[in-house]
Amino acid sequence: MAGDAGYSRPALRLTMAGARKTPTRAIKIASPIYQLRIELLDVTPVIWRRVLVPGSIKLHRLHGVLLWTMGWAGGHLHEFVIGYDHYGAPDPYFNEPPRLQPDNRFTLTAALGARKWFIYLYDYGDGWEHRVTVEQILPPDPTLKLPQCLDGANACPPEDVGGPPGYEDFLEAIRDPNHEEHDAMLEWCGGAFDPTAFDAAAVNESLRRFKI
């Protein structure tokens, strides 16, 4: 055919045969491990956790790790503030900060760069701010198949309690049997609440469902 002028079928067969002999394979580079300290701001006594995650974890997956490690139930909007950049899950029904970048496109390592801390915001209504600090960057560990909580202290506040001021009022009410809202607050939180409770083993059991 005239349209095939100059077309060499034998050369094409040789090229394809060569490609079959030397297949291209993606090389997966092991990721360093980040030891993070998560501290809930504006709350006393300090509520904090220490967790291990790979630097290759995407920010939207890290969101889940932070939720479960702290003890939040989820269901609210969130945001990472790293330097001058904002990352999250854009919501067409909510006016997020300008230039909110999709957090499913960035790994922890890429978003952080050389920075050693960032802010994680959970629930725009209650306004829970967490300072997340990089305590160490450890060598890759192929045995780390799941996020791991190493330590921590004090219980996560109840969802929808009203942020730090609401949590302070809540604790005041449940600690004082004579408080006018004592019974109502206890009923609202399920009958009991221990602000000092923390169980790393229970946290890690919940993280067993998480895949990184």
Q: What string gives the helices and strands in order?
A: HEEHEEEHEEEHHH
User: What overall form do the CA principal axes indicate?
Assistant: globular
**How many helices?**
6
Kindly report the CATH topology of the largest domain.
Answer: Structural Genomics Hypothetical 15.5 Kd Protein In mrcA-pckA Intergenic Region, Chain A
Helix content: 25-40%
Domain module tally: 2
Give the DSSP E fraction (strand runs of 2 or more residues): 15-25%
The CATH superfamily of the largest domain appears as MM3350-like
CATH architecture of the largest domain: Roll
Give me the oligomer status.
single chain
Under CATH at level 1, the class of the largest domain stands as Alpha Beta
Give the termini distance in whole angstroms: 54 Å
Q: Taking strands numbered 1, 2, ... along the chain, how are they ordered across the largest sheet?
A: 5-4-3-6-7-1-2-8
Number of strands: 8
Mean pLDDT: 87
The biggest beta sheet, please? 8 strands, mixed
